[in-house]
Amino acid sequence: MSIFDRIGKAILGDAQAAAPVQSLPASPLTPPASPDLPSDAVPPPGPGAPQSGQIAERPPIITDPATGAPPPAPAPAVDIEDVLDEAVRNSGQKLDWRHSIVDLMKAVGMDASLHERGELARELGYAGDTTDSAKMNTFLHKTLMKRLSENGGKVPPDLLD
């Protein structure tokens, strides 16, 4: 399991950490061809279809093409501030997870060594010098907040700047 996955699981829980951010599939723009019409003919609109120049009352329901089932309801966002504040309280240490990747990793019970942070930097696409720990740590914290937000975490807005 990657370091990011372990952090995500510790903060977001099993279900959201494992669920990648996905976009919904595009709906078909044209209906299937009718066997009674030539291939280049446009079929007439069905009952209740908007007439030319009108807008449909509601968008089509998007379903899973494999099963025909509607997409699952999104899981509620996990408030990472609540989770991490509780983790800090439980740690018994004075940790500033809002500004320090080291403290954030310690709060969730992880090894925050330079080696572990270097591995996390590679996972998150850091292209800078991993021996410049100040720059790397800033990148890690900022990128981690963004990724947690993309994966179902409710991140305080000031940490997404």
Automatic annotation (TrEMBL):
One Pfam family here: DUF3597
Record field: compositional bias (Pro residues): 28-48
Domain DUF3597 residue range list: 3-156
Domain of life: Bacteria
Listed InterPro entries: DUF3597 (IPR022016)
Ranges of biased composition (kind: Low complexity): 49-67
Region (Disordered): 16-77
Protein name, as recorded: DUF3597 domain-containing protein
